[in-house]
Specification:
- Keywords: Membrane, Transmembrane, Transmembrane helix.
- By secondary structure, this protein is an all-alpha fold.
- It has one domain.
- The protein contains two helices and no strands.
- Helix 1 runs antiparallel to helix 2.
- The longest helix has 25 residues.
């Protein structure tokens, strides 16, 4: 993963989190908040794992 790829991936995750924040702000249902926080956590975890990988095309 090149530096540009990492920067674009970070931007995408940030914009995704902003979108989820807007959804939480306007809907304000506790069930949706819980699900949204779980999804945000999974997205951040996946970004963290993928950004730390080194290697070839498969990354493994």
């Amino acid at each position: 993963m090149t530096r540009t790829d990492k920067m674009l991936a970070a931007l995408a995750v940030c914009l995704f989190l902003v979108f989820l924040g807007i959804v939480i702000w306007f809907v304000r249902e506790i069930d949706l908040v819980v699900v949204t926080l779980v999804v945000a956590g999974l997205a951040i975890y996946d970004f963290w794992l993928e950004s730390r990988q080194q290697g070839g095309a498969s990354g493994r």
